[in-house]
Each structure stands twice: as structure tokens, then as C-alpha cells.
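Figure 6 in text form: structure in, sequence out.
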């Protein structure tokens, strides 16, 4: 536990140092200019929201930014270049490729209208003489996080599988000591919510779902990797919920649809059930789509909220322009960061459990 506490403390200090670096790093060490810049530019709300958004580069510290590939499909074919060509700051020069001009605003890539070479912005800094690229396959921070999680999953579970080579029961050793309890835990979730031996068919998906979310949540706690993280992106949680929904629908049985379209069964004659069905059936049908929506919102909101709270707590120091507030902000940030470790596990567990419940309800037999 002491080692875990040290790791969390190190992560918090690293995050705090990265945030403060934008203020403390001045090549001329001119304190008055720095204070003027803080007063003019720092906005806690904007910084917290910006922290929660995806980006086309990984900002490690001032002067150390890792650019990511921009991959666009336009009317003239494929266009690729690095995000560093856009430069930095709010007013960046257009990038010229294949006779076309591109500009980035609010992390969206736009193509300037034909014949235009200078971008014009409205009051909210959106280009007014450009159109957004619809076929944008650029690599962003969240995409990098997905690749990292995928690589981590392959590494961990290929190493674990080698411990069981041959199919004979063996005592877990090495990395398998950590993965086997997790596998058994998810398998028990599947057994409890999916009847009979049907759970075996869906356990591999539930295992992938659980560890993908869990590893992604933990990865998001590491500074500079993904802020907040990939599970804090609505598009990724939407994809996970959609895959679960498709699996549920593709494997749904007759009994599942009878529960939805004929919830009262033979308990009443048809003329007695009709008034109730006008209310119950639309609710049951709406519930089919509400369940996956609840899945994606629950995961997205909980993960994003934790990171915004951390940024907001650190922002107290700079809003009040006093280092004394660090006595409150840093301990509270440490507490929230430790709490996020628990949330990282709980959200993976809740998402997997609910997915198992929804799939289980779709494949249950008539006697249930």
C-alpha cells in the first residue's frame, strides 16, 4: 500500500508540475510578464474543458509537444502531414497540400474554400471561409491511448496464456497471479447473469470489455498519456455500448421479445390488457434503446467528472494567485486521484455487469 501511495503522489506531483510549468517557465524570468499573462489568459473553466477534450498532439510540457499524424481523405485523394505543421496558438497559418489549404480550429480540421489562402474567423474562432473535413482519420490522443491499451492487453494476456500452455491445471505464477483473479471475477459475473452454459459463449467478450475499460481508466491516470482518457470520450463509450447492444439484439430469443411486446402474458383477456399495453409496450420498446444510452453516459460522465474535478482543484491556486492555496488544493487532488483508482475499477465492473445482464435477458429460455 505504501508503494501505491507513493505512485499516486508522484502522479499528482507530475500533473501539478506540468500545469504550473506554463507559468513558471519564462526564458527571461520576468515575473511581472508572467503575472500579466496569468491575469489575461487563465480561465479555470476553459482550462478544465480543454483538458477533457481530445487533441491532435500530446502536450508533455512547454516546449515538449509530440505531434500526431493528420490523415485526411479529400476530393483530391489522401492528404497526410504532421499536426506540428499547423503551428501553435489560436491564429495558425494554413497548411498547403495538393493545391488545397487546411487549417485547424478547436481541434477540428477545415479545408479553405477554393481560391482562399488566408483563413477568417468569427467571434468564436470558427473559420467562416472554410468547411470541416468529413473524412478525417487523423491519429489523436485518444487513438494513441487505444493503441496503447490494445498493446498492453496483448502483452499481459499472451504472457498469462503461456502459463497455462498444455491445458493442464497449474498454480498461477508470474503475471498470471494478477490476471487469473480478474478472469475468474468476470467469469462469475457472466455465470450469475447468463443462464446455464450460455455464459461461456459471451465470457470472452465480457473479459475484453472489462479489461479494456479497466486498463484504459488506469492509463488515463498517468499524466501526459491521455487527458482525461479514452473512456472519457463519448465516441468510445458510444462504440462500447453499441457493440453490446448489437450482441444483445443478434442473440435475442423469442422469449425476450414476448416480454417486451406481451408483458402481461395470459393474465388478462385481450380487451383488459389493451389499455395497459398502450402504456407498457412503448415503454418496453423505449427501454431497449435507453439501456445502451445509460451505459455510455454512465461511463463517460463518471470518468470525465473525476478529471475535471482534479483540474478545477489545482486551478484554485492560480485563480486566487496564491501558492498558499496549494495547502488545500494538493491534498484534495491527492484524495480525488486515489478515489479515481476505485472509480476506474467500479466503472469497468458496472459496465461489464450491466452488459452481462442485458445479454442474459436476451438469451434466457421461456421457463424464466
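Output sequence:
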Amino acid at each position: 500500500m505504501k508503494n501505491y501511495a507513493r505512485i499516486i503522489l508522484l502522479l499528482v506531483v507530475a500533473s501539478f508540475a506540468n500545469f504550473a510549468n506554463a507559468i513558471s517557465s519564462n526564458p527571461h524570468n520576468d515575473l511581472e510578464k508572467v503575472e500579466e499573462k496569468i491575469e489575461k489568459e487563465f480561465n479555470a473553466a476553459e482550462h478544465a474543458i480543454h483538458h477533457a477534450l481530445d487533441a491532435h498532439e500530446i502536450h508533455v510540457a512547454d516546449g515538449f509537444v509530440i505531434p500526431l499524424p493528420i490523415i485526411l481523405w479529400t476530393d483530391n485523394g489522401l492528404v497526410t502531414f504532421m499536426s506540428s505543421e499547423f503551428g501553435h496558438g489560436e491564429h495558425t497559418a494554413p497548411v498547403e497540400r495538393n493545391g488545397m489549404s487546411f487549417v485547424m480550429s478547436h481541434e477540428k480540421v477545415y479545408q479553405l474554400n477554393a481560391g482562399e489562402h488566408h483563413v477568417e474567423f468569427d467571434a468564436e474562432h470558427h473559420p467562416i471561409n472554410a468547411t470541416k473535413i468529413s473524412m478525417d482519420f487523423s491519429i489523436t490522443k485518444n487513438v494513441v491511448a487505444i493503441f496503447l491499451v490494445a498493446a498492453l492487453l496483448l502483452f499481459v494476456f499472451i504472457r498469462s496464456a503461456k502459463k497455462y500452455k498444455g491445458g493442464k491445471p497449474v498454480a498461477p505464477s508470474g503475471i498470471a497471479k494478477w490476471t487469473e483473479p480478474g478472469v475468474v471475477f468476470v467469469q462469475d459475473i457472466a455465470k450469475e447473469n447468463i443462464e446455464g452454459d450460455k455464459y461461456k459463449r459471451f465470457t470472452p467478450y465480457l473479459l475484453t470489455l472489462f479489461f479494456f475499460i479497466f486498463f484504459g481508466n488506469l492509463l488515463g491516470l498517468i499524466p501526459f498519456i491521455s487527458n482525461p482518457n479514452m473512456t472519457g470520450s463519448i465516441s468510445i463509450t458510444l462504440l462500447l455500448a453499441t457493440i453490446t447492444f448489437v450482441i444483445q439484439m443478434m442473440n435475442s430469443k423469442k422469449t425476450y421479445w414476448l416480454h417486451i411486446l406481451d408483458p402481461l402474458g395470459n393474465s388478462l383477456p385481450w380487451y383488459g390488457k389493451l389499455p395497459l399495453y398502450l402504456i407498457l409496450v412503448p415503454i418496453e420498446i423505449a427501454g431497449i434503446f435507453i439501456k445502451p444510452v445509460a451505459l455510455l453516459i454512465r461511463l463517460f460522465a463518471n470518468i470525465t467528472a473525476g478529471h475535471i474535478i482534479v483540474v478545477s482543484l489545482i486551478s484554485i491556486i492560480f485563480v486566487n494567485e496564491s501558492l498558499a492555496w496549494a495547502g488545500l488544493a494538493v491534498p484534495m487532488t491527492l484524495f480525488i486521484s486515489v478515489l479515481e483508482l476505485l472509480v476506474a475499477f467500479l466503472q469497468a465492473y458496472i459496465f461489464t455487469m450491466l452488459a452481462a445482464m442485458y445479454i442474459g435477458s436476451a438469451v434466457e429460455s421461456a421457463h424464466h
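Caption detail: The longest helix spans residues 270-319.
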